[in-house]
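REQUEST FORM: STRUCTURE PREDICTION
Request ID: SP-0412
Submitted by: Lab K.M.
Chain count: 1
Length (residues): 413
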Amino acid sequence: MLWYNDGKMERTIFHVDVNSAFLSWEATYRLKHLSETVDLRTIPSAVGGDLNKRHGIVLAKSIPAKKYGVTTGEPIVRALEKCPQLLIVPPNHALYEKSSKAFIEILKKYSPDVEQYSIDEAFLDMTGMEKLFGPPIVAANTIKDEIYNTLGFTVNIGISTNKLLAKMASDFTKPNRVHTLFPEEIREKMWPLPIRELLFVGHATESKLLNLGIKTIGQLALTDPDILVSHLKKQGEAIWNFANGRDVSLIENNEPAAKGYGNSTTIAFDVTDISQAQPILMTLAESVGRRLRKDNVRAGVVALSIRYFDLSFESHQKTLRSSTNITNELYQAACQLLEECWDFVTPIRLLGIQATKLTESTERQLSLFDTCDFEKQEKVDDAVDKIREKFGLGSIVRGSLLQPPGKNSNKNN
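STATUS: Completed
RESULT:
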């Protein structure tokens, strides 16, 4: 057991990350419940987009697909150009939510402090758990093996003394591995890596650092932080601290305070413009609205969750004039919340929408200034739900997701 010089116990933090989550969950489900014989994880395959219309992005890809250069977040069309034989399967968000819940329930058996960072990853505070589960590496392997034996998919687990280093460790060699990145291992394991491997360094930041002659995480760590701040503002100081393994953020046990419906997504790139955030919010609003309508309930409160590049978290909510399950109303509320609480500078890495204060009432408080035909919107949503239920989630896509981001963001679409 490790102790600080001031006598306080040093923290032990795990970061558990599902390997190619959406693809792994699809593969496991198809093998176990649909009696398929081909494991999607063993062939060039990806989850995302619409195979017939060839639009959308790659949400997850297999290791064989990665060997062709297919990357998460790239357009389906480009992925198919790289790998014409790529098997694309549409996303099944209901399955992913169920798989995520089962995954988190296993983690809660090992620690009372679990922070679900996104649908497929979580932090655990394992400080002082050695007496129950053995040394950290032993405990991590026990968790990893239980997830695989019980649920059928693999995870990577990173171990360190803070969240940043644990998350960096979990990104080392995949799949189905346990890695450590303790402070004394930073110089050997992290500093030789290219700067793009540092958590929260996106393409734009990488370009600026390369222009400064900074190519590795180690070079970044040894750079005068004042130079970084002069070029990158607040982010410069943050990534300098990260390169030196410094992170003081705590595990946030984010149990939902009240019954509601929600969905969130970790984004494969830094969101720095409202036009990048809008299609993500529309997709989340569709998912939440569909579940509300399925259960024949409406929400009176909409909340927006934001996770920034530096692991900081912010949540903002608003009470609606009338309870709703209309996708576009949920979307508009989320956009308004984003505009109210975001500075449009700090890069975003996760967005989430939660709908609470549920009711089965269909009454609506009307206003003389309402220009929306709510009855028509409800019929459109109902028709979309029925089409997707019959032909799959990728069978119909809103026009707002096909046009250039940012256009008609305040119109009913």
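NOTES: The longest helix spans residues 274-294.
Reviewed by: T.R.
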